Protein backbone atom coordinates (compact mmCIF):
# COMPACT_ATOMS: atom_id res chain seq x y z
CA UNK A 1 0.00 0.00 0.00
CA UNK A 2 1.13 3.54 -0.72
CA UNK A 3 2.29 5.24 2.49
CA UNK A 4 0.27 8.23 3.63
CA UNK A 5 1.86 11.68 3.22
CA UNK A 6 3.50 13.28 6.22
CA UNK A 7 0.79 15.92 6.62
CA UNK A 8 -2.00 13.32 6.83
CA UNK A 9 -3.29 12.42 10.27
CA UNK A 10 -2.57 8.75 11.08
CA UNK A 11 -5.43 6.31 11.47
CA UNK A 12 -6.49 5.15 14.89
CA UNK A 13 -4.87 1.76 15.58
CA UNK A 14 -7.24 -1.17 15.56
CA UNK A 15 -8.18 -2.52 18.94
CA UNK A 16 -9.06 -6.04 19.92
CA UNK A 17 -12.53 -7.05 21.03
CA UNK A 18 -11.40 -6.94 24.65
CA UNK A 19 -9.99 -3.42 24.25
CA UNK A 20 -13.08 -1.97 22.62
CA UNK A 21 -15.50 -0.16 24.86
CA UNK A 22 -18.98 -1.60 24.56
CA UNK A 23 -21.86 0.71 23.87
CA UNK A 24 -24.49 1.40 26.48
CA UNK A 25 -24.31 1.60 30.23
CA UNK A 26 -21.28 0.33 32.11
CA UNK A 27 -21.44 -2.95 33.97
CA UNK A 28 -23.43 -2.44 37.17
CA UNK A 29 -25.00 0.82 35.99
CA UNK A 30 -28.66 1.24 35.12
CA UNK A 31 -29.34 1.78 31.42
CA UNK A 32 -30.97 5.05 30.38
CA UNK A 33 -33.36 4.85 27.45
CA UNK A 34 -35.16 7.61 25.63
CA UNK A 35 -38.61 8.03 27.21
CA UNK A 36 -41.62 7.05 25.06
CA UNK A 37 -43.43 9.87 23.25
CA UNK A 38 -46.34 11.37 25.20
CA UNK A 39 -48.71 11.15 22.23
CA UNK A 40 -49.42 8.51 19.58
CA UNK A 41 -50.73 10.07 16.36
CA UNK A 42 -51.45 6.88 14.43
CA UNK A 43 -51.70 3.16 15.18
CA UNK A 44 -51.25 0.52 12.50
CA UNK A 45 -51.82 -3.21 12.84
CA UNK A 46 -49.04 -5.40 11.40
CA UNK A 47 -50.41 -8.86 10.60
CA UNK A 48 -49.04 -12.04 9.03
CA UNK A 49 -51.70 -14.09 7.29
CA UNK A 50 -49.71 -17.20 6.28
CA UNK A 51 -46.60 -18.98 7.48
CA UNK A 52 -43.68 -17.86 5.27
CA UNK A 53 -42.29 -21.43 5.27
CA UNK A 54 -45.23 -23.76 4.68
CA UNK A 55 -47.99 -21.33 3.67
CA UNK A 56 -50.41 -22.43 6.39
CA UNK A 57 -53.03 -19.88 7.49
CA UNK A 58 -52.05 -18.39 10.89
CA UNK A 59 -55.37 -16.98 12.06
CA UNK A 60 -55.47 -14.54 14.99
CA UNK A 61 -52.21 -13.62 16.80
CA UNK A 62 -51.82 -15.02 20.32
CA UNK A 63 -49.67 -12.03 21.46
CA UNK A 64 -49.02 -8.46 20.37
CA UNK A 65 -45.63 -6.74 20.42
CA UNK A 66 -45.49 -2.97 20.26
CA UNK A 67 -42.88 -0.84 18.54
CA UNK A 68 -42.93 2.95 18.36
CA UNK A 69 -41.39 4.68 15.34
CA UNK A 70 -41.03 8.47 15.30
CA UNK A 71 -40.90 10.29 11.96
CA UNK A 72 -39.69 13.86 11.53
CA UNK A 73 -41.96 15.40 8.90
CA UNK A 74 -41.49 18.80 7.24
CA UNK A 75 -43.46 21.61 8.82
CA UNK A 76 -46.63 22.96 7.31
CA UNK A 77 -47.92 26.49 6.88
CA UNK A 78 -51.36 27.45 8.21
CA UNK A 79 -52.90 30.19 6.05
CA UNK A 80 -55.73 32.25 7.51
CA UNK A 81 -57.82 34.63 5.43
CA UNK A 82 -59.21 37.57 7.42
CA UNK A 83 -62.28 39.20 5.88
CA UNK A 84 -62.11 42.72 7.24
CA UNK A 85 -65.38 44.57 7.13
CA UNK A 86 -65.95 48.17 6.10
CA UNK A 87 -68.96 50.06 7.42
CA UNK A 88 -70.72 53.33 6.84
CA UNK A 89 -71.94 55.02 9.98
CA UNK A 90 -75.60 55.95 9.78
CA UNK A 91 -75.08 58.91 12.10
CA UNK A 92 -71.93 60.68 10.81
CA UNK A 93 -71.96 58.97 7.39
CA UNK A 94 -68.23 58.16 7.69
CA UNK A 95 -66.73 54.93 6.36
CA UNK A 96 -65.29 52.86 9.20
CA UNK A 97 -62.97 49.86 8.81
CA UNK A 98 -62.39 47.04 11.26
CA UNK A 99 -58.81 46.44 12.35
CA UNK A 100 -56.86 43.20 12.72
CA UNK A 101 -55.59 42.78 16.27
CA UNK A 102 -51.98 44.04 16.44
CA UNK A 103 -50.84 40.96 18.36
CA UNK A 104 -51.73 38.75 15.36
CA UNK A 105 -49.35 40.22 12.79
CA UNK A 106 -47.45 43.46 12.20
CA UNK A 107 -48.96 45.97 9.75
CA UNK A 108 -48.55 45.21 6.04
CA UNK A 109 -46.91 41.83 6.68
CA UNK A 110 -48.08 38.49 5.36
CA UNK A 111 -46.46 36.62 8.27
CA UNK A 112 -47.69 36.56 11.86
CA UNK A 113 -45.54 37.38 14.90
CA UNK A 114 -44.87 33.70 15.58
CA UNK A 115 -43.21 33.37 12.17
CA UNK A 116 -41.17 36.51 12.89
CA UNK A 117 -39.93 35.10 16.18
CA UNK A 118 -39.13 31.73 14.63
CA UNK A 119 -37.02 33.35 11.90
CA UNK A 120 -35.31 35.47 14.56
CA UNK A 121 -34.53 32.38 16.64
CA UNK A 122 -33.01 30.60 13.64
CA UNK A 123 -30.95 33.69 12.90
CA UNK A 124 -29.60 33.67 16.46
CA UNK A 125 -28.61 30.04 15.96
CA UNK A 126 -26.29 31.16 13.17
CA UNK A 127 -28.35 30.70 10.00
CA UNK A 128 -27.56 33.24 7.29
CA UNK A 129 -30.16 34.87 5.09
CA UNK A 130 -29.56 32.33 2.33
CA UNK A 131 -29.72 29.55 4.92
CA UNK A 132 -33.09 30.83 6.16
CA UNK A 133 -34.37 30.99 2.60
CA UNK A 134 -33.30 27.41 1.95
CA UNK A 135 -34.83 26.18 5.23
CA UNK A 136 -38.19 27.85 4.55
CA UNK A 137 -38.27 26.55 0.97
CA UNK A 138 -37.22 22.98 1.82
CA UNK A 139 -39.24 22.35 4.99
CA UNK A 140 -42.21 24.69 4.54
CA UNK A 141 -42.54 25.26 0.80
CA UNK A 142 -42.19 29.03 1.21
CA UNK A 143 -40.22 31.01 -1.34
CA UNK A 144 -39.19 34.12 0.59
CA UNK A 145 -36.93 36.91 -0.65
CA UNK A 146 -33.92 38.19 1.27
CA UNK A 147 -35.68 41.54 1.71
CA UNK A 148 -38.63 39.85 3.41
CA UNK A 149 -36.34 38.07 5.89
CA UNK A 150 -34.49 41.30 6.64
CA UNK A 151 -37.80 43.05 7.24
CA UNK A 152 -38.94 40.28 9.62
CA UNK A 153 -35.71 40.54 11.61
CA UNK A 154 -35.99 44.33 11.72
CA UNK A 155 -39.59 44.23 12.99
CA UNK A 156 -38.65 41.74 15.71
CA UNK A 157 -35.72 43.95 16.75
CA UNK A 158 -37.99 47.00 16.94
CA UNK A 159 -40.50 45.08 19.06
CA UNK A 160 -37.82 44.15 21.61
CA UNK A 161 -36.10 47.56 21.49
CA UNK A 162 -37.24 48.55 25.03
CA UNK A 163 -35.81 45.35 26.53
CA UNK A 164 -32.62 45.84 24.53
CA UNK A 165 -32.27 49.38 25.87
CA UNK A 166 -32.90 48.16 29.43
CA UNK A 167 -30.07 45.61 29.11
CA UNK A 168 -27.71 48.30 27.83
CA UNK A 169 -28.62 50.57 30.74
CA UNK A 170 -28.00 47.74 33.24
CA UNK A 171 -24.57 47.10 31.74
CA UNK A 172 -23.78 50.83 31.75
CA UNK A 173 -24.52 51.03 35.48
CA UNK A 174 -22.41 47.97 36.33
CA UNK A 175 -19.43 48.46 38.62
CA UNK A 176 -17.25 46.24 36.44
CA UNK A 177 -17.69 45.55 32.74
CA UNK A 178 -15.87 43.05 30.52
CA UNK A 179 -15.48 44.33 26.96
CA UNK A 180 -14.17 42.59 23.87
CA UNK A 181 -14.86 42.40 20.16
CA UNK A 182 -14.29 39.99 17.29
CA UNK A 183 -14.71 39.97 13.54
CA UNK A 184 -18.24 39.52 12.18
CA UNK A 185 -19.48 39.26 8.59
CA UNK A 186 -22.76 40.88 7.56
CA UNK A 187 -23.82 40.12 3.97
CA UNK A 188 -20.18 39.68 2.97
CA UNK A 189 -19.06 42.96 4.58
CA UNK A 190 -16.61 42.98 7.49
CA UNK A 191 -18.15 44.17 10.75
CA UNK A 192 -17.29 43.75 14.42
CA UNK A 193 -19.30 42.00 17.13
CA UNK A 194 -18.90 43.80 20.47
CA UNK A 195 -19.80 42.19 23.79
CA UNK A 196 -20.25 44.02 27.09
CA UNK A 197 -20.69 41.80 30.17
CA UNK A 198 -21.51 43.02 33.68
CA UNK A 199 -21.36 40.28 36.35
CA UNK A 200 -22.99 42.44 39.06
CA UNK A 201 -25.92 43.38 36.85
CA UNK A 202 -26.10 39.83 35.42
CA UNK A 203 -26.48 41.39 31.99
CA UNK A 204 -24.81 40.88 28.62
CA UNK A 205 -25.14 43.39 25.80
CA UNK A 206 -24.12 42.61 22.21
CA UNK A 207 -23.99 44.95 19.25
CA UNK A 208 -22.65 44.76 15.70
CA UNK A 209 -20.86 47.77 14.21
CA UNK A 210 -18.58 48.54 11.29
CA UNK A 211 -16.18 50.34 13.60
CA UNK A 212 -13.65 48.78 15.96
CA UNK A 213 -12.73 52.15 17.44
CA UNK A 214 -13.54 54.13 20.55
CA UNK A 215 -16.95 55.34 19.35
CA UNK A 216 -18.66 52.00 20.06
CA UNK A 217 -17.67 51.55 23.75
CA UNK A 218 -18.22 55.26 24.39
CA UNK A 219 -21.73 55.05 22.92
CA UNK A 220 -22.64 51.94 24.92
CA UNK A 221 -20.97 52.69 28.26
CA UNK A 222 -20.70 56.44 28.29
CA UNK A 223 -17.41 58.31 28.43
CA UNK A 224 -17.55 59.69 31.99
CA UNK A 225 -17.68 57.07 34.74
CA UNK A 226 -14.85 57.15 37.28
CA UNK A 227 -16.18 54.48 39.68
CA UNK A 228 -16.24 51.73 37.05
CA UNK A 229 -13.62 49.05 36.43
CA UNK A 230 -13.26 48.26 32.74
CA UNK A 231 -11.77 44.84 32.01
CA UNK A 232 -10.40 44.91 28.48
CA UNK A 233 -7.43 44.13 26.29
CA UNK A 234 -4.69 46.52 25.28
CA UNK A 235 -6.60 48.12 22.42
CA UNK A 236 -6.53 51.90 22.06
CA UNK A 237 -10.32 51.98 21.67
CA UNK A 238 -10.67 51.97 25.49
CA UNK A 239 -8.14 54.69 26.29
CA UNK A 240 -10.71 57.50 26.09
CA UNK A 241 -13.00 55.96 28.73
CA UNK A 242 -12.59 57.28 32.25
CA UNK A 243 -12.22 55.05 35.30
CA UNK A 244 -9.88 52.24 36.20
CA UNK A 245 -8.92 49.65 33.60
CA UNK A 246 -7.88 46.07 34.21
CA UNK A 247 -5.83 45.04 31.20
CA UNK A 248 -5.28 41.51 30.00
CA UNK A 249 -1.91 40.12 31.15
CA UNK A 250 -1.29 38.43 27.81
CA UNK A 251 -1.63 41.77 26.03
CA UNK A 252 0.61 43.44 28.59
CA UNK A 253 3.26 40.82 27.83
CA UNK A 254 2.86 41.41 24.10
CA UNK A 255 3.25 45.18 24.51
CA UNK A 256 6.38 44.66 26.59
CA UNK A 257 7.83 42.33 23.96
CA UNK A 258 7.09 44.76 21.14
CA UNK A 259 8.68 47.58 23.12
CA UNK A 260 11.87 45.55 23.53
CA UNK A 261 12.02 43.80 20.14
CA UNK A 262 11.60 46.94 18.03
CA UNK A 263 15.18 47.98 18.91
CA UNK A 264 18.43 46.42 17.72
CA UNK A 265 19.50 45.86 21.33
CA UNK A 266 17.38 45.92 24.48
CA UNK A 267 19.44 48.71 26.00
CA UNK A 268 18.56 51.01 23.08
CA UNK A 269 14.92 51.19 24.23
CA UNK A 270 14.32 54.40 26.21
CA UNK A 271 12.35 52.58 28.93
CA UNK A 272 13.95 49.14 28.60
CA UNK A 273 14.24 48.65 32.36
CA UNK A 274 10.56 49.24 32.91
CA UNK A 275 9.62 47.03 29.96
CA UNK A 276 11.90 44.25 31.22
CA UNK A 277 10.30 44.40 34.67
CA UNK A 278 6.84 44.48 33.09
CA UNK A 279 7.68 41.42 30.97
CA UNK A 280 8.86 39.50 34.04
CA UNK A 281 5.74 40.43 36.01
CA UNK A 282 3.46 39.37 33.15
CA UNK A 283 5.28 36.06 32.75
CA UNK A 284 5.03 35.42 36.48
CA UNK A 285 1.30 36.14 36.59
CA UNK A 286 0.64 33.91 33.57
CA UNK A 287 2.74 31.12 35.04
CA UNK A 288 0.92 31.36 38.37
CA UNK A 289 -2.43 31.24 36.57
CA UNK A 290 -1.27 28.38 34.33
CA UNK A 291 -2.33 30.32 31.26
CA UNK A 292 -0.60 30.09 27.88
CA UNK A 293 1.06 33.10 26.36
CA UNK A 294 -0.80 32.67 23.08
CA UNK A 295 -4.28 33.66 22.05
CA UNK A 296 -6.09 31.63 24.73
CA UNK A 297 -6.51 33.60 27.95
From TrEMBL:
Biased composition (Basic and acidic residues): 12-21
Chain intervals with Basic residues compositional bias: 22-36
InterPro entries: Transposase-related, Transposase_IS66_central, Znf_dom_IS66
Residue ranges constituting the Transposase IS66 central domain according to the UniProt record: 126-258
Region (Disordered), start-end ranges: 1-42
Residues in Transposase IS66 zinc-finger binding domain copies: 50-93
PANTHER family linked: BLL1576 PROTEIN, PTHR33678:SF2
Name the UniProt record assigns to this protein: Transposase IS66
Organism: mine drainage metagenome
